[in-house]
Amino acid sequence: MNRSLLWTTAFALLAGCAFVEQVNQNVEQTYQEKMESYDAPTQLNGNPREVGILLVDAITERALNNLYLVGVAIANNREPEKPILFGSFKKGGFLSQLSGVVIMPNLQPGTYRIVKIRTENQKAGETTYMPTTKEFEVEISPGKPVYFGQIRIKVPFGSAGRTISIGYDKNREADSWKMVVEKYGDSSWRTVINARIKEVN
């Protein structure tokens, strides 16, 4: 399979986006990606004194309909050949305030990279690989809840090209963490996450 990518990078600070990348991605790679299992964690495992936790939200915006986040693959930079897959515990939708979020618990400290994301709706789905740049890396530390930001993929009508941006909004982060607390209320991470929510607000 030809997995060649043509990347043209442009950095910007526009409309809350800290990073913007123009991408022409192999159509076969994007739309015929083999199906993989993205499962949401049943509980937030791990001792906050020893491991970290990561929260990602994303959306694919297309001319006629949007695709919402259902899964994220990350990899530790020490083991880039071993991606870890996580699914969304709250899938987004047309009436959802958030596009969908994925929580990734029990991560050993270190530098991780967002490898790819899976977005879907009732009619379609696609997997999009993220650029192999520093902007898609994140540092995980023990006891620190990390919100990566929102990955927004815009696909022009009739085009295989796309724009990938990373945006941040403090209200969005707070709302995302609140959903985590509602879902995993008995977790050992609850106190730490609530402290992060107060810090953001």
Structure report:
- With 201 residues, the protein is mainly β.
- It is built from three helices and twelve strands, in the order E-E-H-E-E-E-E-E-E-E-E-E-E-H-H.
- Strands 1, 2, 3, 4, 5, 6, 7, 8, 9, 10, 11 and 12 form a twelve-stranded mixed sheet that branches.
- Strand 4 and strand 5 form a beta hairpin.
- The relative contact order is 0.22.
Strand content: 35-45%
Task: Give the radius of gyration.
Answer: 16 Å
Q: Using the alpha-carbon principal axes, give the shape.
A: globular
Number of beta-strand segments: 12
Helix and strand element order: EEHEEEEEEEEEEHH
Tally of helical segments: 3
Mean pLDDT across all amino acids: 81
Main beta-sheet strand count, sense and barrel state: 12 strands, mixed
**Class from helix and strand fractions:** mainly beta
- Outline the low-pLDDT stretches: 1-17, 23-33
**In percent, how helical is the residue content?**
10-25%
Distance between the termini: 47 Å
